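LAB NOTEBOOK - FOLDING QUEUE
OPERATOR: T.R.
BATCH SIZE: 2
PURPOSE: Compare the predicted structure-token outputs for two unrelated chains run back to back under identical settings.
PRIORITY: normal
REVIEWER: second-year student, initials M.K.

ITEM 1
FIELD SEQUENCE / FIELD STRUCTURE:
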Amino acid sequence: MSNKIENVLKIGKGIHERYIGTVTTDILKEITQVFTAEPNSKNNCHEVEELEGVGGYQRRATPARQNKFAEYLKKNPDKYVVPAVFLNGRGKWKFNPYNPDKNNNFGYIEITDRANIMDGQHRCGGFIRLFDKSAIQRDCEFVVYKNIPLEDE
């Protein structure tokens, strides 16, 4: 996997380093996953039950809720979606500043593997459903932490 997200702001340092930006919904399913304890084959999001020997913790998705959110998005194309989704980049999302000499807090992210959705699986599922069923692309706001240990998610 190799994706890139432009126009990202970096804030914080160390364990608190995180990036704020938007991702288009056409790639949202490809770059995120739900670290779940209760898989649901009808979930619009990609799911994983175990990573690095650690079991998932997210509750079972409610696809009807995701689908209802997709309908809301379709009927309200100019409405804001608040709050942003919160992700754990698991060290797989690398921030690169555009101009390290002037402002090393604004740049792009290179993605080599999926981020875990820590908060927002139903919003993500709605965005994904909207794109999959209607080919409507939207921007999804995110905050991604650089690398939270799985046990601390």
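ITEM 2
FIELD SEQUENCE / FIELD STRUCTURE:
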Amino acid sequence: MRKGIGCAIVFGVLLLAVAAGGVVWLLDSVDKVTSDGQTDGVIVDLIEGRDTDGDLVYAPVVEYAVDGVSYRIESSVRYGGLAVPDIGDIRTVYYDVDDPSQAVSRGFWTLWFFPGLLIAIPLLLLVLMIGFGAYNRRKDAEGATGIGYAPPV
């Protein structure tokens, strides 16, 4: 077995595991959008806190109504810097139709962008890794020993 192939296999498996996590997250997003109830909510408060670096962050509190009953949820997403939403901003809320008090407020970034990134980047790295491996094999077959080879002096 060629030197380094074991590392390539381990790295490839890790990349696939990260991509699988992205697929699970994406499937959860699809489930939220297609099977749960959906309504608009309004940010009514911002709860102040600190992130792990000690920077100031805010968690929006979103109020929404289902069948005339009002509910409030605190977003699991924390905002800081210029990204802090304003009180009165509208957010989409996905709620459990059997228990409307169980809800999440997610936007484009947490529904689609980050899961897509967790799928795309590992798959791109995997394709590049396979491509460089194939290139090195072809070079080896032609008599060279691959990229970065310097013959002994």
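REVIEWER COMMENT (ITEM 2): The beta strands are 37-50, 56-66, 69-74, 79-80, 90-95, 103-105.
FOLLOW-UP: none requested
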